Task: inverse folding
Protein backbone atom coordinates (compact mmCIF):
# COMPACT_ATOMS: atom_id res chain seq x y z
CA UNK A 1 0.00 0.00 0.00
CA UNK A 2 1.38 3.37 -1.05
CA UNK A 3 0.88 5.87 1.77
CA UNK A 4 1.72 9.52 1.16
CA UNK A 5 3.66 10.89 4.09
CA UNK A 6 4.99 14.12 2.61
CA UNK A 7 3.22 17.47 2.63
CA UNK A 8 5.22 18.30 -0.49
CA UNK A 9 3.29 15.80 -2.60
CA UNK A 10 1.78 17.56 -5.63
CA UNK A 11 -1.81 16.39 -5.03
CA UNK A 12 -1.58 17.28 -1.35
CA UNK A 13 -0.24 20.77 -2.06
CA UNK A 14 -2.97 21.39 -4.65
CA UNK A 15 -5.66 20.36 -2.17
CA UNK A 16 -4.12 22.51 0.55
CA UNK A 17 -4.45 25.60 -1.66
CA UNK A 18 -8.24 25.15 -1.74
CA UNK A 19 -8.39 26.29 1.88
CA UNK A 20 -7.81 29.79 0.44
CA UNK A 21 -10.60 31.53 -1.46
CA UNK A 22 -8.32 32.86 -4.21
CA UNK A 23 -7.60 29.30 -5.36
CA UNK A 24 -11.22 28.14 -5.32
CA UNK A 25 -12.08 28.91 -8.94
CA UNK A 26 -13.45 25.58 -10.15
CA UNK A 27 -12.98 23.21 -7.22
CA UNK A 28 -13.43 23.13 -3.45
CA UNK A 29 -12.84 20.84 -0.48
CA UNK A 30 -15.26 18.83 1.60
CA UNK A 31 -14.39 17.02 4.80
CA UNK A 32 -15.96 14.00 6.44
CA UNK A 33 -18.09 11.05 5.45
CA UNK A 34 -21.46 12.79 5.74
CA UNK A 35 -20.59 15.50 3.23
CA UNK A 36 -18.93 12.94 0.97
CA UNK A 37 -22.12 10.87 0.93
CA UNK A 38 -24.28 13.93 0.29
CA UNK A 39 -22.04 15.04 -2.58
CA UNK A 40 -22.00 11.55 -4.10
CA UNK A 41 -25.76 11.15 -3.80
CA UNK A 42 -26.34 14.50 -5.51
CA UNK A 43 -24.18 13.58 -8.49
CA UNK A 44 -21.47 16.13 -7.73
CA UNK A 45 -18.20 15.39 -9.52
CA UNK A 46 -15.64 14.26 -6.94
CA UNK A 47 -12.20 14.64 -8.45
CA UNK A 48 -9.94 13.31 -5.70
CA UNK A 49 -10.42 11.69 -2.32
CA UNK A 50 -7.86 11.54 0.48
CA UNK A 51 -8.30 9.06 3.34
CA UNK A 52 -6.19 7.74 6.18
CA UNK A 53 -5.02 4.14 6.14
CA UNK A 54 -7.86 2.85 8.34
CA UNK A 55 -10.39 3.73 5.61
CA UNK A 56 -8.35 2.52 2.64
CA UNK A 57 -10.39 -0.65 2.12
CA UNK A 58 -13.66 1.31 2.02
CA UNK A 59 -12.29 3.77 -0.55
CA UNK A 60 -10.05 1.72 -2.88
CA UNK A 61 -9.69 4.55 -5.42
CA UNK A 62 -8.65 7.13 -2.81
CA UNK A 63 -5.22 8.59 -2.16
CA UNK A 64 -3.97 7.15 1.13
CA UNK A 65 -2.27 9.67 3.42
CA UNK A 66 -1.05 9.81 6.99
CA UNK A 67 -3.15 11.55 9.64
CA UNK A 68 -0.58 14.34 9.71
CA UNK A 69 -0.98 14.95 5.98
CA UNK A 70 -4.77 14.83 6.26
CA UNK A 71 -4.60 17.40 9.06
CA UNK A 72 -2.50 19.56 6.74
CA UNK A 73 -5.26 19.83 4.10
CA UNK A 74 -8.11 20.75 6.43
CA UNK A 75 -8.68 23.62 8.85
CA UNK A 76 -10.78 21.49 11.20
CA UNK A 77 -9.37 20.99 14.70
CA UNK A 78 -10.59 17.39 14.83
CA UNK A 79 -10.71 16.22 11.20
CA UNK A 80 -12.43 13.03 10.19
CA UNK A 81 -10.56 10.54 8.07
CA UNK A 82 -11.62 11.85 4.67
CA UNK A 83 -11.11 14.97 2.56
CA UNK A 84 -12.26 15.28 -1.05
CA UNK A 85 -11.84 17.72 -3.92
CA UNK A 86 -15.15 18.49 -5.64
CA UNK A 87 -15.84 20.29 -8.91
CA UNK A 88 -17.95 23.45 -8.61
CA UNK A 89 -21.21 23.86 -10.47
CA UNK A 90 -20.89 27.41 -11.81
CA UNK A 91 -23.41 27.07 -14.64
CA UNK A 92 -26.27 29.34 -13.55
CA UNK A 93 -29.34 29.09 -15.77
CA UNK A 94 -32.35 30.81 -14.26
CA UNK A 95 -34.61 28.95 -16.67
CA UNK A 96 -33.66 25.63 -15.07
CA UNK A 97 -34.27 26.73 -11.46
CA UNK A 98 -37.61 26.88 -9.70
CA UNK A 99 -37.80 30.47 -8.45
CA UNK A 100 -41.16 30.17 -6.72
CA UNK A 101 -39.70 30.59 -3.25
CA UNK A 102 -36.09 31.67 -2.82
CA UNK A 103 -33.77 33.08 -0.17
CA UNK A 104 -31.42 35.94 -1.00
CA UNK A 105 -28.48 36.84 1.23
CA UNK A 106 -27.33 40.44 0.84
CA UNK A 107 -23.88 40.88 2.35
CA UNK A 108 -24.16 38.26 5.10
CA UNK A 109 -20.53 37.79 6.07
CA UNK A 110 -20.34 35.38 8.98
CA UNK A 111 -19.69 31.85 7.65
CA UNK A 112 -21.79 30.28 10.39
CA UNK A 113 -24.75 32.52 9.57
CA UNK A 114 -24.48 31.82 5.84
CA UNK A 115 -24.32 28.07 6.34
CA UNK A 116 -27.14 28.06 8.88
CA UNK A 117 -29.40 30.12 6.63
CA UNK A 118 -28.84 27.83 3.65
CA UNK A 119 -29.55 24.81 5.85
CA UNK A 120 -32.69 26.49 7.20
CA UNK A 121 -33.89 27.35 3.68
CA UNK A 122 -33.41 23.70 2.79
CA UNK A 123 -35.39 22.61 5.85
CA UNK A 124 -38.14 25.10 5.03
CA UNK A 125 -38.59 23.77 1.51
CA UNK A 126 -37.24 26.81 -0.33
CA UNK A 127 -36.27 26.28 -3.95
CA UNK A 128 -32.90 28.04 -4.12
CA UNK A 129 -30.52 30.40 -2.33
CA UNK A 130 -28.69 33.30 -3.96
CA UNK A 131 -25.82 35.17 -2.34
CA UNK A 132 -24.46 38.61 -3.19
CA UNK A 133 -20.78 38.71 -4.16
CA UNK A 134 -19.80 40.18 -0.77
CA UNK A 135 -21.28 37.34 1.30
CA UNK A 136 -19.04 34.78 3.00
CA UNK A 137 -17.77 32.31 0.42
CA UNK A 138 -20.18 29.39 0.26
CA UNK A 139 -17.27 27.07 -0.58
CA UNK A 140 -15.20 27.95 2.49
CA UNK A 141 -14.67 25.05 4.89
CA UNK A 142 -16.59 26.80 7.69
CA UNK A 143 -19.65 27.42 5.52
CA UNK A 144 -19.48 23.87 4.15
CA UNK A 145 -19.51 22.43 7.67
CA UNK A 146 -22.36 24.71 8.72
CA UNK A 147 -24.51 23.80 5.70
CA UNK A 148 -24.22 20.08 6.53
CA UNK A 149 -24.81 19.14 2.90
CA UNK A 150 -27.84 21.36 2.23
CA UNK A 151 -26.02 22.86 -0.75
CA UNK A 152 -26.49 19.45 -2.40
CA UNK A 153 -30.25 19.57 -1.85
CA UNK A 154 -31.06 22.90 -3.51
CA UNK A 155 -29.30 25.30 -5.91
CA UNK A 156 -26.93 27.76 -4.21
CA UNK A 157 -25.30 30.49 -6.31
CA UNK A 158 -23.25 33.66 -5.82
CA UNK A 159 -24.72 36.31 -8.13
CA UNK A 160 -24.86 39.95 -9.09
CA UNK A 161 -27.91 41.13 -7.16
CA UNK A 162 -28.93 43.72 -9.75
CA UNK A 163 -29.17 40.98 -12.38
CA UNK A 164 -31.10 38.74 -10.01
CA UNK A 165 -33.62 41.47 -9.16
CA UNK A 166 -34.11 42.20 -12.85
CA UNK A 167 -34.92 38.53 -13.45
CA UNK A 168 -37.31 38.39 -10.50
CA UNK A 169 -39.22 41.41 -11.76
CA UNK A 170 -39.53 39.80 -15.19
CA UNK A 171 -41.10 36.78 -13.49
CA UNK A 172 -43.29 38.94 -11.23
CA UNK A 173 -41.78 37.47 -8.08
CA UNK A 174 -42.25 39.68 -5.03
CA UNK A 175 -39.07 40.79 -3.28
CA UNK A 176 -39.54 40.90 0.50
CA UNK A 177 -36.60 42.44 2.35
CA UNK A 178 -36.10 42.20 6.10
CA UNK A 179 -35.17 45.53 7.70
CA UNK A 180 -35.84 47.63 10.78
CA UNK A 181 -36.72 50.64 8.63
CA UNK A 182 -39.63 52.89 9.63
CA UNK A 183 -41.10 52.04 6.24
CA UNK A 184 -41.31 48.32 7.01
CA UNK A 185 -44.39 46.37 8.04
CA UNK A 186 -44.72 43.33 10.28
CA UNK A 187 -44.03 40.10 8.43
CA UNK A 188 -47.32 38.83 9.86
CA UNK A 189 -49.15 41.27 7.60
CA UNK A 190 -47.73 39.64 4.47
CA UNK A 191 -50.10 36.91 3.30
CA UNK A 192 -48.27 35.75 0.18
CA UNK A 193 -46.83 32.25 0.66
CA UNK A 194 -45.37 31.67 -2.81
CA UNK A 195 -43.79 33.62 -5.63
CA UNK A 196 -41.46 35.37 -3.19
CA UNK A 197 -37.80 36.23 -2.77
CA UNK A 198 -36.95 36.73 0.90
CA UNK A 199 -33.90 38.97 1.37
CA UNK A 200 -31.78 39.09 4.53
CA UNK A 201 -29.07 41.70 4.97
CA UNK A 202 -25.66 42.16 6.52
CA UNK A 203 -25.25 41.48 10.25
CA UNK A 204 -24.34 45.08 11.07
CA UNK A 205 -25.53 47.25 8.19
CA UNK A 206 -28.68 45.42 7.12
CA UNK A 207 -29.84 45.34 3.51
CA UNK A 208 -28.01 47.31 0.84
CA UNK A 209 -29.42 50.42 -0.80
CA UNK A 210 -29.88 48.38 -3.98
CA UNK A 211 -32.10 45.90 -2.16
CA UNK A 212 -34.06 48.67 -0.46
CA UNK A 213 -34.68 50.29 -3.86
CA UNK A 214 -35.70 47.02 -5.54
CA UNK A 215 -37.81 45.52 -2.74
CA UNK A 216 -41.57 45.32 -3.23
CA UNK A 217 -42.17 45.06 0.52
CA UNK A 218 -39.98 45.86 3.53
CA UNK A 219 -40.76 43.64 6.52
CA UNK A 220 -39.69 43.40 10.14
CA UNK A 221 -40.15 41.01 13.03
CA UNK A 222 -42.06 42.42 15.98
CA UNK A 223 -39.95 42.28 19.16
CA UNK A 224 -41.85 42.90 22.41
CA UNK A 225 -38.63 42.73 24.44
CA UNK A 226 -35.79 45.23 24.73
CA UNK A 227 -33.24 43.73 22.34
CA UNK A 228 -32.51 46.04 19.41
CA UNK A 229 -32.22 43.28 16.83
CA UNK A 230 -32.01 39.56 16.19
CA UNK A 231 -29.12 37.53 14.85
CA UNK A 232 -29.67 37.26 11.10
CA UNK A 233 -29.81 33.45 11.19
CA UNK A 234 -32.50 33.54 13.90
CA UNK A 235 -34.47 36.19 12.02
CA UNK A 236 -34.11 34.16 8.84
CA UNK A 237 -35.46 31.06 10.54
CA UNK A 238 -38.55 32.90 11.73
CA UNK A 239 -39.24 34.38 8.30
CA UNK A 240 -38.44 31.26 6.30
CA UNK A 241 -40.84 29.12 8.29
CA UNK A 242 -43.51 31.79 8.03
CA UNK A 243 -43.56 31.33 4.27
CA UNK A 244 -43.50 27.53 3.98
Result:
Amino acid sequence: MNIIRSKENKAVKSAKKLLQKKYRKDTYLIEGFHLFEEASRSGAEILETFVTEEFAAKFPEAIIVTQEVLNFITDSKTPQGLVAVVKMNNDLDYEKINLNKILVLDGVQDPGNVGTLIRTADAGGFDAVFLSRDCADVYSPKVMRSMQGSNYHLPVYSVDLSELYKKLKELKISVLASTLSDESISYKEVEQKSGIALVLGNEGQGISQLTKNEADVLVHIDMPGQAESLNVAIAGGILIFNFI
